[in-house]
Amino acid sequence: MIDLTRFIRPGDGVWWSQTSAEPTPLVHALLDQVARIGSVRAFVGMSWDERLSSDPPEELQVLSYGALGALRKLSRSGRLEIVPCNYSGLPTMFARGELPHDVGFVQVSPPDADGYCTLGTGVDYIADAVEHTPVLIAEINRRMPATRGSVRIALDRFAATVETDRPLLTVPAARVTDVERTIASFVSDLIDDGDTLQIGVGALPDAVLEQLDGRADLGVHSGMITDGIVRLMRAGVITGARKEIDMGLVVAGAALGTGALYDSVSDLPIEFRAASYTHDPAVLSRLRSLVAVNSAIEVDLSGQVNSETRGGAYIGAVGGQADFSRAASLSGSLSIIALRARSGERSTIVASLAGGPVSTSRTDVDAVVTEFGVAHLRGQGFAERARRLTAIAAPEFRADLDRASGLAAALSA
After folding, report:
1. Residues 186, 148 within the same domain
2. CA distance 184 to 326
């Protein structure tokens, strides 16, 4: 394995590609050698590496924009430092040197005939970080597909490389229950032919995509794509024919799903772009048909959204939710927050966010959806918002929410 002591010095900052493009052999080399290197700060996105999250060496300080995937375990143990930010802010933070950027680990496709590699299925903020990182070390994976839409990297740009032939990380489809299907039916009713979707990953987004078979000429401009997007492309539902920009193309930053998804991305009209494009407010403002579908941990009676913490523990992220929600509400078509009405024995519609952060402002939420219906919030005052949100809470919590909203109204009178 590669000797990282040649490239990383004590006090250096390191970052690496995330999701399906995580360069696991390089990450494990760092875990093996960091005690000899000395103190290192590492910026990590969404990671599924159980070895990283279980008990990283004391010399490694791990930072992230959220506690996603296996990083939730690291967060619970107190070993993860969260950098709260919108996803659109990551490119600027790398450009200004505010995030670790001395050395970058990437997983790339094999070089083409001209000696250039692509970032494959993991472009996102990595393409922006590459520009400001002096030392790049690459895992050249024979199975990483060459993708279109972003910068190609010359082979001689890498200070060192390792060659592998291993499957990309796969995430099987989440189990979709009747609750998700019910929520998805309400969400799908809000999506019209020709709309451009931003949608996340997980059981609820999968359920929404399952119910869009009857639509025509949908577009996609999103942070990440999954198998459901490819299925709808092959079915002729997602064509991008009515998109205001990037007509005919699915635009995303990364892919996360099964091997079938990764095998498809080179053959379909999919372009992987940097976060400085996919999440840029100026770009998003041109998508007048944008419908943003995001989830949450809880929503209060004014429409404020917490998508980061539960019970004092950091388990989520701001991510791109605020970027897309604001764009969809201000200049696009619709900003939707969809979530189950219950989390265990607790209501996810709450009187107020009890110490949790406001991840997405109430001014950027047009509709909230649970299995009990849709609360349309656009143009509504506080009292009507509270009434509508209470109506889609789980029935056993509605009386308490009515009392809470009534008390709040009395105190403000």
Report:
1. no
2. 22
Global pTM?
0.95
95 shares its domain with 196: no
Residues of the chain with pLDDT under 70: 407-413
Shared domain check, 185 and 138:
no
Phi-psi region of 304 (alpha: psi -120 to 50; beta: other; left: phi over 0): beta
CA angle 83, 52, 33 (to 5 degrees): 105
Helix axes 178-188, 203-210, angle to 10 degrees: 60
Give the bridge partners for 43, in sequence order: 15, 63
Range of the domain at 32: 10-164
H helical segments located in 68-226? 71-76, 90-95, 126-130, 178-188, 203-210
| Burial group, residue 401, by CB count within 10 angstroms (0-12, 13-18, 19+) | buried
Q: Each residue of 135-177: pLDDT tens digit?
A: 999 999 999 999 999 889 999 999 999 999 999 999 877 889 9
Q: Show the beta-strand stretches assigned E in 83-218.
A: 103-108, 116-117, 135-141, 153-154, 158-164, 196-199
Number of domains in the chain: 2
> What sign results for the dihedral spanned by CA atoms 84, 86, 91, 95?
negative
